[in-house]
Design goal:
Layout lengths: L8 E4 L6 E2 L1 H19 L8 H7 L4 H8 L8 H17 L4 E2 L3 H10 L3 E6 L3 H10 L8 E4 L8 H12 L5 E5 L2 H9 L3 E5 L14 E3 L4 H5 L5
Parallel strand pairs: 1-4, 1-6, 4-5, 6-7, 7-8
Antiparallel strand pairs: 2-3
Helix pairs in contact: 1-4, 3-4, 4-6, 7-8
C-alpha cells in the first residue's frame, strides 16, 4: 500500500519503464556487433534479444561485458561505442517509442504539482537522445544518468533526493526491475513496480504497488482527472 500523505516527488527509471528500448536497442546491438566482426575480421555470436533483456538496467560498464562472449570482452568498450552511435541514429530517425500512456500520466502528475524525476543507469548521450527525441525532457525537474559512473548508485541518488524533499515518505520510485525496487527500499523510499518492462513478476513482489499500465499510477497515487 502506497502512503501519499507527504508525497512531493515521483522518480522514474527510464528503459523498460518510460521508454520501450526494444524499439531502438536490439537493432542497434546487432549493428554494433556486426561492425565489430567486420573490423576484427572474425565472426562471433551476436547476443539474442532474450540475453540482452536479461541485463537491461545495468550500467553500461557492466552491461556490455555481460552480453559479450568471454573471448571478445576486451572489445566491450568498442561495442558500446558502436551500439551507442546506432541507438542515437535510430532515435534521431524517429524509431523510439515510449510505453502507452506515458506522456499523459507525466502531464497529469505535473499538473497536480508533483515534482518529477528520472533516474537511470543509462549513459549521458543515450539519456539525452531519448529525452530529446521522445519529448520527455520537458517533464523532469530533476534527473540523473549513472551509466559512466562507478561511484554513484540509484539508492544513493534516491536517498539524496528524499533528504532534499524532507524525508523518505516524500518520494516514490517507479521501475521495472528488482534492482529498482531494492534501490528504493535501500534509500528508505517507496517503490512502484511496472509489469510491462523487463523484470519478471517475482522481481516486483516487494514493491508497495504494482501496475499493469502507466495511467494506473494516477489511481495508485489518488490522483483523478
Amino acid at each position: 500500500m502506497i502512503n501519499t500523505r507527504n508525497l512531493k516527488a515521483v522518480a522514474f527509471d527510464m528503459d523498460g519503464t518510460l521508454f520501450n528500448s526494444f524499439t531502438v536497442s536490439y537493432d542497434a546491438v546487432r549493428e554494433g556487433f556486426e561492425q565489430l566482426w567486420e573490423e576484427i575480421g572474425e565472426k562471433g555470436t551476436t547476443p539474442s534479444w532474450q540475453r540482452v533483456k536479461l541485463f537491461i538496467g545495468l550500467p553500461s560498464y557492466e552491461f556490455y561485458p555481460a552480453v559479450t562472449e568471454p573471448k571478445y570482452r576486451q572489445h566491450a568498450e568498442k561495442i558500446e561505442e558502436y551500439v551507442g552511435a546506432a541507438e542515437r541514429r535510430r532515435l534521431a530517425d524517429g524509431h523510439g517509442r515510449c510505453f502507452d500512456g506515458t506522456h499523459m500520466t507525466l502531464q497529469k502528475l505535473k499538473e497536480h504539482g508533483i515534482i518529477l524525476g528520472c533516474l537511470t543507469n543509462a549513459g549521458k548521450r543515450y539519456f539525452d537522445s531519448v529525452m530529446d527525441n521522445c519529448d520527455l525532457g520537458e517533464f523532469f525537474a530533476i534527473s540523473r544518468h549513472l551509466g559512466e559512473s562507478m561511484h554513484s548508485s540509484k539508492s544513493g541518488v534516491l536517498r539524496e533526493w528524499s533528504v532534499e524533499f524532507g524525508g523518505g515518505d516524500t518520494l516514490i520510485y517507479v521501475g521495472d526491475r528488482e534492482g529498482d525496487i531494492r534501490s528504493a527500499h535501500d534509500a528508505g523510499v517507496q517503490a512502484v513496480g511496472v509489469t510491462w518492462g523487463y523484470g519478471s513478476p517475482s522481481e516486483l513482489a516487494s514493491a508497495e504497488a504494482i501496475i499493469d499500465k502507466m495511467p494506473e499510477l494516477l489511481e495508485v497515487l489518488g490522483i483523478s482527472d
